[in-house]
């Protein structure tokens, strides 16, 4: 009886376990990436090999389940997917890796939680989304965005008292990379701005090509070619592109198979079961996991300013996502009675679940922008009866 109860509880919490697994995978990737980048791994070599692995992992799903969709790829759709790869992977992910190299894993992960806010700001400026300050949800959403920005400024400008959880590498942890905190911060800011632009493009493309596996497969292939071209232009030395049986190779397979392919499947499954906002609510956990793991395993310092900033970002992000979810629910319910009304543009602006998953917005946008359609066969039957 007890075993049956345990199985029942596990079955009811399977989505929760899946999302916790996603955050653990993201934590491992941040730490592994930080270690190999600190030891001189070339960023675009890492991105090229990583997306080769991701392409091979996603290919079976695209070729088996969505084979016919590949025939629907026009030059217009291909160009849009090309821009998604350019903004969401080459620019956003590349700049993030350079920022991670110059800072710490915890510091860089803080900026990932600001991506929904950057997307919100861009969509508001471009009039894709309205502030709706007259509503309670609109006020909470703006307050959440301000708390996130306050948290980011606190982490950047205030340090305070410093302490260590582990004495491992306490004195060896101060490397020359930390002297480039300003440069790393600029890279991270540019990265989240690139992600904000990427989400706007992604939301538009998802309406004309809503095939998540095929789109991911094509984007990963394009990103691989783009990474090689940009990387060769920056560094042509064979030593920068050479692979060995070391931590670099482990990180490449880890990031491609787990952080991209496996995470994509888990989050797509969670979006189908619980909706697009549910996975986003777990995103701040990776920040906590990374901070603890980096302090324990890498001997990284923890400051009062970083803890205060993390708290403000987490509270602000939860407030923003909850208000956004309520706002979308109100919009859908108000439009439910009118089947001809098009879905609001702001429903296509989705929340980042994980930066390692460059196609999640497609599934979320597809989930959010469904419109009730009148089945055509009913009309044909009525016409036959009239005849």
TrEMBL record:
Give the UniProt entry's GO cellular component terms: membrane
Does this UniProt record's set of keywords contain Plastid? no
From the UniProt record, which GO molecular function terms apply? transmembrane transporter activity
- Residue ranges occupied by any EamA domain in the UniProt entry: 19-156, 183-319
* Alphabetically ordered keywords of this record: Membrane, Transmembrane, Transmembrane helix
Membrane topology per the entry is: Multi-pass membrane protein
- Regions crossing the membrane: 42-65, 77-99, 111-128, 140-160, 180-201, 213-232, 252-271, 278-298, 304-321
Q: Which InterPro entries match?
A: EamA_dom, EmrE-like, WAT1-related
* This protein's record includes keyword Iron: no
Q: Which SUPFAM superfamilies match?
A: Multidrug resistance efflux transporter EmrE
Q: Which family does it belong to?
A: Belongs to the drug/metabolite transporter (DMT) superfamily. Plant drug/metabolite exporter (P-DME) (TC 2.A.7.4) family.
Q: What is the protein named?
A: WAT1-related protein
């Amino acid at each position: 009886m007890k075993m049956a109860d345990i199985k029942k509880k596990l079955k009811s919490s399977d989505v929760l376990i899946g999302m916790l697994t996603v955050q653990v995978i993201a934590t491992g990737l941040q730490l592994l990436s930080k270690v190999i980048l600190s030891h001189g791994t070339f960023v675009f070599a890492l991105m090229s090999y990583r997306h080769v692995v991701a392409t091979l992992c996603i290919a079976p799903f695209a070729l088996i389940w969505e084979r016919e969709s590949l025939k629907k790829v026009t030059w217009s759709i291909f160009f849009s997917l090309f821009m998604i790869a350019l903004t969401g992977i080459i620019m956003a992910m590349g700049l993030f890796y350079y920022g991670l190299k110059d800072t710490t894993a915890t510091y860089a992960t803080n900026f990932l939680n600001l991506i929904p806010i950057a997307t919100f700001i861009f969509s508001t400026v471009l009039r894709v989304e309205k502030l709706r300050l007259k509503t309670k949800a609109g006020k909470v959403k703006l307050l959440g965005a301000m708390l996130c920005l306050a948290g980011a400024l606190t982490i950047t400008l205030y340090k305070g008292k410093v302490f260590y959880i582990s004495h491992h590498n306490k004195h060896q942890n101060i490397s020359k990379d930390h002297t480039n905190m300003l440069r790393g911060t600029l890279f991270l800011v540019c990265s989240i701005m690139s992600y904000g632009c990427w989400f706007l493009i992604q939301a538009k493309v998802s309406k004309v090509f809503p095939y998540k596996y095929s789109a991911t497969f094509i984007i990963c292939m394009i990103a691989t070619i783009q990474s090689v071209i940009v990387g060769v232009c920056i560094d042509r030395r064979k030593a920068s592109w050479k692979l060995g049986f070391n931590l670099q190779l482990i990180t490449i397979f880890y990031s491609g198979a787990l952080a991209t392919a496996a995470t994509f499947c888990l989050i797509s499954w969670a979006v189908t079961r619980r909706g697009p906002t549910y996975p986003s609510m777990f995103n701040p956990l990776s920040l906590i996991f990374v901070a603890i793991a980096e302090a324990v395993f890498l001997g990284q310092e923890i400051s009062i300013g970083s803890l205060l900033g993390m708290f403000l970002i987490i509270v602000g992000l939860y407030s923003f996502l909850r208000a956004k979810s309520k706002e979308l629910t109100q919009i859908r319910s108000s439009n439910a009675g009118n089947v001809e009304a098009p879905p609001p543009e702001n429903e296509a602006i989705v929340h980042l679940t994980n930066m390692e998953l460059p196609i999640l917005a497609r599934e979320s946008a597809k989930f959010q922008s469904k419109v009730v359609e009148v089945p055509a066969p009913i009309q044909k039957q009525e016409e036959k009866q009239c005849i």
